[in-house]
Amino acid sequence: MKRRLLAGAAAAATVACLACATSRRVVASLTANCREVQPGVAFEMMRDNPNILALDVRHAGEITAARPRLPRSRNIPLSELPRRFGELAAWQKGTIVIFSRDGADAASACEFLARQEFLYVSHVTGGVEGWARRGFLRPAAPAADP
After folding, report:
1. Which of 6, 39, 54, 119 has an alpha carbon 20 to 30 Å from 92's alpha carbon atom?
2. Residue-wise pLDDT tens digits, 127-137
3. SS3 for 85-106, per residue?
4. Which fold has domain 33-146?
5. Rounded CA gap, 70 and 96, in Å?
6. pLDDT digits (tens, 9 = 90+) for 17-57
7. Which contacts qualify for 88-91: CB closer than 8 Å, 24 or more apart?
8. Helix or strand or coil: residue 10?
9. What Cα–Cα distance (Å) separates residue 144 from each residue in 52, 53, 56, 69, 94?
């Protein structure tokens, strides 16, 4: 009897481990197109390739004189992204670098766009705050959208 219980427990543990491994693979496939990049890497990517879209997912209250929109960026607040991501269709196979205030909302936006089959999306570690700490924040240039 004890052997049967132990065998049953071992089988259940094996199935649970297989389910965990499968879950990890599914999660990995969902997030495979979403990368985290440091501010310096993002700066170089944007400097060297003017076709990269800088997507700012901050809401209006987070865009201030001290932390303005980035040059050539497009602003779609994270709360509006599920209904407005179609506006980014031209970049579905291009590169998108996503910014938020501190990086957390950018990571969420990155995951969302990766699930929508955007191929090359990255979010910046530390967001605009990290960007500013590294000295990359400059006076805003004309925006990519009104």
Report:
1. 39
2. 999 988 888 87
3. HHHHHHHCCCEEEEECCCCHHH
4. Oxidized Rhodanese; domain 1 (3.40.250)
5. 14
6. 434 443 333 344 445 689 999 999 999 999 999 899 999 99
7. 88/53, 88/55, 88/113, 88/118, 91/53, 91/118
8. helix
9. 12, 9, 11, 10, 16
